[in-house]
Amino acid sequence: MRTICFDLYHDGVRWIAKNDQIVVTGKTLEELDENLKLKLKDIFENERTVKVNMELDYRKMIPHWMWQYHPYYFYRTVYLEMD
Amino acid sequence: MAEERRWYTGMFSTEDWWAFWLGTFFVFLGIITMLTGFDLVGWIVKFGKWVTIEKAFKASNPDLWSPVASLIATYVIILVTTTIGAFFMKWDIKKYLVAFTLVFWISVICYIIGENAYIAATELDRAKYGIDWSLSLGGAFYITALIVGLLIGNLAPKGFREFIKLGARPEWFIKVAIVMLGAKLGYLAMKSLGYALHILVAGACATIAAYLLFWPLAYATGRKLFNLSREWSACLASGISICGVSAAIATAGAIKARPIVPVMISALIVVFAVIELIVLPGVLVAFWFHEPIAAGASLGLTVKTDGADAAAGAILDELMRSRAALDLGVQWEEGWILMSAVNTKIWIDMFIGVWAFVLAAVWVYYFERRPGEKVQKMEIWWRFPKFVLGYFLAMGLLVILGLNLYPDPTTAYKAMTPGIKPVEGALRKFFFVLTFTSIGIVTDFRTLRQEGLGRLALAYAFILAVIIIPIGWLIAYLFHMGMTPPTVTP
């Protein structure tokens, strides 16, 4: 099973998953996952499941004064079935 | 750059871990001094009550350091160590150096003013300072630092406010101080082991009771009475009933809320925590003087940031001891009331990872049911407050060393004093003063006027006043009733 990692952002309207090669958006996390699945299908043609890790970019999304209270926002792992 | 999160992620890039590193570093300096007799902590500046200014501060080891040299050494060592942290956390170092320097010297001035004997000396102290009157305002140096901080945070020009905030890091400073407070608990345990354990266990029980009552009631009130969505209500409930900003972020992250949700709630938490910090110690001294440890514990359950809770605990400790000296003619040992406040808060903090994990599972598997998403058990560790490890490490190490290296606890206590006392006393108190100044600087009361916060602020105030504070007081009383700090001879 292949693993792929993304930084995650929210622009006020959409979730944005981004790494060096791919940028995918969705109004909800469900929609984001669906769009990711479509995108990854083209890249990982022979994989049945792809493990996707996404971590919200804390330092870009959360104000500086709040960092001292908690170390990160969220880190989600989704197993996308490519069938 | 996107990468997989590991168990050690953040070890050198977060304030929480850097509180662990710095606090543990200072405690180890004390332990090395204690074990070898080689004085690594004599430089720590110690402020005290004064009538003539030259007696306002001195070195922890006056034989090795002059007062001015120790003040400068303290500035340089705290500046260097925190700047190392700032460097690894990729802050703007030049700005941090200047901003922290301002915060440091403002804190020093406030400390000196607040320790003037005419302001701070108790009735029992007056003869010692050769004065015939005093205001008996114990902890005035904390209040002075807070007021000056608030003036800067609310009245200074915007550019300056934003700049100085880079060096005003209340939560970081207080976490460093809390690690040192662990050393204090270990050190005092040599004299009163059973009492220290009682406070620890009572705090843990009170916390569990609070978790089980606070969160469901706060969540239900947010949903039913104020019509907040699940997303807003869960984050508000965690923020107000668990551990403030940290809980709001952890919960928002666990339920995958939009980042704006914890940001708005956190702005409220910080302001309300400062209001509680100003109001509650005075109220508790006036109405709950005969239950000082319960009063301290109640702060841990009701004041929702570590900084404001410890700050309120420190003021309460000073005020209660001043009143005990005045009304009862006894001197309560310094620090037990504060430790009671911090202890309950630390237990609350520790379970945030578990709580976030539970909420994440409920949201992913029950409410939102996103296919393929898995909740990771590692979330409990990632969200665990690492400075708490430093607190227990410092306490445990001192208890183990004290009980094993010395023939009896009294000898251990005496042997520990030259090394540990300056760290858990003077240095820890100075970090508290830095916290007070910083809390003031980062608290902007204009937040309450921010558009869209009205209903949320109303919900917060209602839940705090009707649910959290009354239940917090009741739980604190049930688990700590009748406990008073050990007395000492002046």
Structure description:
The complex is a heterodimer of chains A (83) and B (490). A five-stranded mixed beta sheet of chain A has the order 3-2-1-4-5. Helices cover 23% and strands 39% of the residues of chain A. With 83 residues, chain A is an alpha+beta fold. Chain A has a single domain (2-81), classed as Double Stranded RNA Binding Domain (2-Layer Sandwich). The mean pLDDT of chain A is 91. Chain B has 490 residues and is mostly helical. Chain B has one domain (15-488). Chain B has helices at 15-36, 67-88, 93-114, 117-120, 126-129, 140-155, 158-164, 170-189, 193-225, 230-241, 244-254, 260-287, 292-302, 306-328, 336-350, 352-367, 378-383, 387-405, 409-442, 454-480, and strands at 45-47, 57-59, 331-332, 373-374, 487-488. In chain B, the strands form two sheets. Chain B has a two-stranded antiparallel ribbon. Chain B has a two-stranded antiparallel sheet with strand order 3-5. In chain B, helix 2 (67-88) packs antiparallel against helix 3 (93-114) and helix 8 packs parallel to helix 18 (387-405). The longest helix of chain B is centred in the C-terminal third of the chain and has 34 residues, at 409-442. Chain B is globular and about 70 Å long. Chain B starts with 14 loop residues before the first helix and ends with a strand. The model of chain B has no long low-confidence stretch (mean pLDDT 92). The A-B interface holds A 3, 5-7, 10, 12, 18-20, 29-30, 33, 53-56, 61-81 and B 1-5, 10, 14-17, 165-166, 169-172, 244-246, 249-250, 252-254, 256, 258-260, 262-263, 266, 305, 368, 370-374, 376, 379, 382-383, 386, 442. Strand 5 (75-81) of chain A pairs antiparallel with strand 4 (373-374) of chain B.
